[in-house]
Amino acid sequence: MSTETFRIKFLTSKNCFCCLSTRNLSKYPLRSCVKVFLNNSDVLYFSIGPSNFQLEDDELGISSLYANVLNLRENDLVEMCIVNNVSAVKSLTLSATCADDYEVLELLAESVQNTLLNHVTVVNKNQKVIIWVSPFLHVNVNIDEVRPTSPGHLENLTEVIIKPPTKVKTDITEHNNMSVFDMFQSRVPLTNSEYVFNKFSKEIEPQVFRLHPLDDLKKVFGEIPNSDQYFNVFIRQKDLSGLLRKTASGKVDKLFLLKVIVPPYVSVQGFIAENLQVETVRVQLIVIQDFFKTEIDFESCDFSVMFCHQSLFKNFKLKVGSKVILYSQLRDTSSVDSIIILTKSVYLNDVEEMLKYYLAKNCKQGPVLLNADFPFQLDDKNMVCALKFEPSSKSYCILDSDNIRKIKYTVVEKEVEIIRNESEEQFITFNELDVCTEVGNYRQIFENVCNILQKSLNRNSYELEGIVISGKSGSGKTTLLNLIKNKLSDSPFRLHFEIVNCGTLKGKTLDSLSQ
């Protein structure tokens, strides 16, 4: 096994391949596996990929991002040789290197598996790789297991398993800084949110939540204070720890930055948008137990739940259970001089008064948060508007009953709409179920199927293997499936549905499908 010496050259590519000059491709063909020996005796494995860069004969081109992950420096000298007879990988287990990357992996698991071969073809156990989820977002992962042998060559039928993060056990005696005198201080119950604010004011870390609409809370408690404000979000007492801090005046600051990962959009026809977006919006945090002292149905959930206004779901095309990340937000103390209202021509005469009415009504319950360039509906007549603030650098503002009278309002004509998600279109209304005559009594079939599924969800002993819906072409099988999906995805079940094409099951095992 003869080796050659190469010099590391950083490239701006977005993959984990290594690249060579055109002359060297005769000795190291494309997609072949190479073994690279580092100066510290470590060994790395790469696949030769195509290059759009001009390289010298002694240069080995690697993505600069990937090189930093592997602790490689530009102009480092390495030894390289080709590896023959690399076996195909049947099963690959990978894990994220940090919690944030795991959240992205879990959210976009199917997209990661489908695009993995675009970024890497040769994998080795315990070697890190980078996966580009979008042109602007990438995650670092570690290869935990390669079967049957490592290194191996990825194929289209390779089973990819994403390993969840393991909980790290910490030594309590090592990290406990409590003084012995603290044991004799009066104990304050955690039901007091002000106490939790004070206790965790210095431990502010981003936290992941699953979104639920406020309607889920209203079905339990009825009317909820402050729920008419578009940017108020509600969380449980148990999810409060580590989120809050105090302002310079000593008051609890409930202003946060909410980052929403908008997954690739899938239309009804099955077309998938390639661009992944991360939207941001400022929100005010409210603790549910500050208004309602009783237990709620969501108290038993292990994951963190956030209840928000329906406008967030509509503007970002989100589904119930979508994940968001809550970050601390430094409050901008500068004031707003004027508000520019953008709306359609038909609303120019009424929109200013409607906005003032909205602010006056909600300021009675506390400060009102507004975000710039966020379309929202002011009344039941589809009056939609968006706002801009002066100075123009401000992306949000917080108004109270004092400053809403001092602000200047300007109305500007502009087409502003809340974009409707194509996947939310209704195929058929429930009252039209009796019209269908192709599959017997459509309503009865619908109710029977939902009844069976509900029993299987409510009783652990009720075993359900599957339900087959059969019928000739055009009889309404797909419509019936969508009706059942809409029924069980609504409250109180809130089930998440995935429509799986049978062709994608080829080469998969039952264990990987269940994960």
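That was protein one. Protein two is written in the same sequence-then-structure order:
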Amino acid sequence: LTAITLPMTHQNLANMIGSNRVTVTRKLLELQERGAVRSLGRNAIAVDQVKLLTHAQAATTNEPTFA
């Protein structure tokens, strides 16, 4: 796992990517449930790069992820 510091709120992240806070929160929770990311506190996450890449590739091909 790789630790990443994110000194921003879900709203800040949503603004950066042209989304909304609810969607960012929902998608981050989905990634946590799939084991691709894990919260390390208020401003940091641990990322499983392999699982995250698998999820991203499946999303572009409409295949189920993490069977």
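The chain has three helices and three strands. Keep this in mind for the problem set.
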